[in-house]
Each structure stands twice: as structure tokens, then as C-alpha cells.
Amino acid sequence: MGYWDPPEYFDEAKFPEIDAETDTLIEHLVGAIKEEYKDKIAKESDAYQDLKASYDSLRRELTNKNSDLLAKDGLIETLNKELAKKKMEHPSFKFDIGETVFYVRAEYNSEKKAHCPRCNGKGYIELDAEKNNLPQDVTEPVKYLCPECKNCTGGFLYRGAKHFKEYSYYSYTVAQGTIAKICYQVKENGETQTTYYVKNSIMLHEANYVEEDLYDNRDDALKRAQVETKLSRIKAMTSVGITKAIGKDYAESGHCCSMYCTYERGRIRLN
Questions:
Q1: Those residues with Cβ within 8 angstroms of residue 148's Cβ, 6 or more apart along the chain or in another chain
Q2: N or C: which end of the chain has fewer CB within 10 A?
Q3: Cβ–Cβ under 8 Å, residues 172 and 225
């Protein structure tokens, strides 16, 4: 046997059991590797199926939303067409050109005023020296600023005043005129408004009114005038501090407010 010749104990033929064990081991390893990758493949397959299901679900949802958007776009287009058609339609009006109408008009009278019940609209309180037991050296009436109205007039209160010393109110009467022009407006939001221009023999120019302020008969307009007159008086009374609590005293005492109100059953009644 030469140096390079394999030794006799390496002779495979002499050790057949080693070959069998080797083959068995190889088969076992191959089987284990197959099972491992089989499990991995199964898991990856499950994950893929989950992703695919999520993708399909999102795709269906997107399709449905696109369908909804298309439907809404169609609805918007339809509404725009209807709005454009509505703008072009000739509306029906309650009153016609040349028709006689009745409306309410305010009349101002400088004497129609409510006054502060504390100072009777003077803006100050005057004390008589003799009647109020003032010191003997005080012979002239003593005047001091009204603590309620503080002599306030105009459109705002100042100096801590509780109300105004006087406040004007209006009487409303019924006027008659004819429709000279009708203006019909359509706003961006689709709302409409009709304005009537009325003229009569007294006014030099046309006055505009909305439909709710015009009447086709005098009786309805008169009812509106009476309501507006009462509301104007109530506003004047509250602006000078006349309330339910003091209305009775001043209505019965003959002060300024008695000319336009009386006290009846615990509340102020307008004359």
C-alpha cells in the first residue's frame, strides 16, 4: 500500500452501516427542512390571503364611494339646472302693477313723549324749601340731578343713568298708494325677495315695501297700525323706566304717563 493510498478503514464497502445512517440522517434533515418551509409557506399564504381580502374590501369601498360621488355630482348638476330654470321663470306676485294697496306710515309728533316718572321729564328734582322742611336760610327751591335718568337724552345713557328722561313715540296711520314697480331678486342660496315700489299723491318719490308690509284692504292695514302704535308707546314707556310696579301710581296720579296709559288688573293698559 502506497503512501497516498487510503487506509483500509476508509473503505466504504467495509462500513455499510455508516452509509445507511448517513442516508437516514439526510432524509430526516430534508424532511425537517421541508416541514419548516411548508409551515412558512402556509403562514405566508395566510398573510397573503388576509392582505388580498383587505385589498378587495378597500377596493369595493372605493368603488362604492366613487359611485356615491358620481351620484352626488349628478344630483348637483340636476339641482343647478333646476335653479337656473327657476331663475328664468316668471314668478307670481301678490300685487300687480297699478293695483291699489294699503300700508302703515309713522307720524311723528314732538309732544308725544313718555317722561321719567321720578322727575316728570325735567332731568332734575326740585324741592320746595317750605314743604320739605329745609333750613330757614334756604328760601329758594333746591334742585338736584334726577338720580334715575341723570338728565339723559339722545340715543345712549351716560353717568350711570337707569333710563332716559324722555322718549318719543309714534302714531301709525294707514296710507294708500298704487304699485308702480316690482323688483324680484334671487340670491345665491336660492332665496327670493320681492320688493314693491309704491307711489301716491302725497309722496314725491316712490317708497319701497316688502310683501308683508302691504295689504289689499284698509281694515287689515288699520289693525297693523294699531299694533305698531302700541308697540311704539310700550318702547317709550320702558325707555323712561315706567314698569308694571310703578305704572299704577303714575297712571292714577295724573303724571305725564296717564295721558297714554291706565293701570288695570295689575298691568299697564294703553289708551
A1: 116, 117, 118, 119, 161, 162, 163, 241
A2: N
A3: yes
What is the band of 139 on the pLDDT scale with cuts at 50, 70, 90? low
234 and 167 Cβ atoms separated by less than 8 Å: no
Sign of the C-alpha dihedral computed for residues 128, 131, 133 and 136 taken in this order: positive
DSSP structure class, residue 215: B
What residue type is 26 in one-letter code? I
CA angle 241, 246, 249 (to 5 degrees): 130
Is pLDDT larger for residue 72 or for residue 262? 72
Name residue, grid cell 319701497: 208
Please state the rounded mean pLDDT for residues 148-168. 88
CA 187 to mean position of chain CA atoms: 18
Q: Please name the amino acid found at residue 4.
A: W
Element of type H or E holding 238: helix 218-239
Cβ–Cβ < 8 Å for 157, 163: yes
Nearby residues of 182 by Cβ (< 8 Å), 6 or more positions away: 93, 95, 97, 194, 195, 196, 197
Q: And the C-alpha cell for 224?
A: 297693523
Q: What is the pLDDT of residue 264?
A: 37
pLDDT band per the 50, 70, 90 thresholds, residue 251: very low
Q: Which three cell numbers stand for residue 81?
A: 339646472
Q: Which residue has the cell 334726577?
A: 146
